[in-house]
Amino acid sequence: MTLPPFVRRHIGSLATPGADAAGATMLAALGLDSLDALVNAAVPASIRLDRTLDLPAGRTEEEVTATLREIAGMNTVRTEMIGLGYHPTVTPAVIRRNVLESPAWYTAYTPYQAEISQGRLEALLNFQTVVSDLTGLPVAGASLLDEATAVAEAILLMRRAVKGRADGVVVVDADCLPQSIAVARGRAEALGLPLVVADLTGEGGLDAVEGDVVGVVLQAPGASGAVRDLAPLIAQAKARDALVTVAADLLSLTLLTPPGEQGADLAVGSAQRFGVPLFYGGPHAGYIAVRSGLERTLPGRLVGVSVDADGATAYRLALQTREQHIRREKATSNICTAQALLAIVASMYAVYHGPGGLREIAERVHSRAVALADGLRAGGVEVVHAAFFDTVLAHVPGRADAIVAAAAERGINIFGRDADHVQVACDETTTPATIALVLEAFGAGVASETEPTTSALPEALRRTSEYLTHPVFHAHRSETAMLRYLRALSDKDLALDRTMIPLGSCTMKLNATTQMEPMSWSAFADIHPFAPREQAAGYTRLIGELEGWLAEITGYAAVSVQPNAGSQGEYAGLLAIREYHRAGTQPGAAPRDICLIPASAHGTNAASAALVGLRVVVVATADDGAIDLDDLRAKLAEHGERVAAIMITYPSTHGVYEDTVRDVCSLVHAAGGQVYVDGANLNALVGLAQPGEFGGDVSHLNLHKTFCIPHGGGGPGVGPVAVAEHLVPYLPGDPSPSGTWATDSPTGTAPVSGAPYGSAGILMIPWAYIALMGPDGLTAATASAVLTANYVARRLADHYPILYTGPGGLVAHECILDIRPLTAETGVTAEDVAKRLMDYGFHAPTLAFPVPGTLMVEPTESEDLAELDRFVDAMIAIRREIQDVADGRWSAAESPLRGAPHTAASLIADEWTHAYSREEAGYPLPSLRAGKYFPPVRRIDGARGDRNLVCSCPPIEAYAEGAL
Ligand SMILES: *Cc1c(COP(=O)(O)O)cnc(C)c1O
Question: Which residue range or ranges hold the Glycine dehydrogenase C-terminal domain (predicted)?
Answer without folding.
Answer: 781-902
